[in-house]
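Exercise 3.2. Students should predict the tertiary structure of the chain below and write it as structure tokens, then compare their answer with the key that follows.

Predict this chain's 3D structure.
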Amino acid sequence: MENTILISIEALRKDFPTSGGSFTALNGIDLKFGKAEFTGIVGPSGSGKTTLLNIIGSLDSPSEGRAIVLGQSISDLNPKQAALLRRSKLGFIFQSYNLLPVYTVFENVEFPLLLLKLDDNHRRKMVMDSLEWLGLTDKVKSKPAQLSGGECQRVAIARAMVKKPEIVLADEPTANLDAANSHNILKSMVQLNKELGTTFIFATHDDKVIGYLKRKISLVDGKVTTDEIRNN
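Answer key:
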């Protein structure tokens, strides 16, 4: 792990209201994430993986404790500031792809850039660079319905990477893919991690993803049980 700390989690707790009181999804989490990490938060369903990813991504806020992401305290951000952080610094990859069905591959990847007020030529170059990284330049005019599952996920990764974010958060990104496509997707992300120095943080319980991780953090019942650096 490099010395530059991008994310600092301190005594983090997250409670959700229930009909009988509340449910504690995260309970006293202390973690730091550095630049260019390739890290997974692993554990069974209900262990708090997605909740932690959502807080890092400013999609949710802690009940107690602090989450400092790229120098900003998530709890202190108003909705506009949180949206700006996501728009400018973070990339998201989900298991469901979340592609816009009426848009072409080019338009889907371009979409996050439309809010950044870039000139047309610069924006087009960024989109084409991203599609080239993921081997999708022959699919620019295709729509999601014309693509395989693996191609759709590669488009989702291209969309997440197009603005060269400092951090990419991936929630079960291989859940809907077969083994061959999963390995191809993961190899692409490893390459992007190396070439661009992007920090990747996964929430997963997929053994295929776990095999590629350089750091594995295990969550059980909202608590960190192990945090290991791996030499794979």
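Discussion points: The chain has seven helices and ten strands. Strands lie at 5-18, 21-34, 38-42, 64-69, 72-73, 90-94, 167-171, 199-204, 215-220, 223-229.
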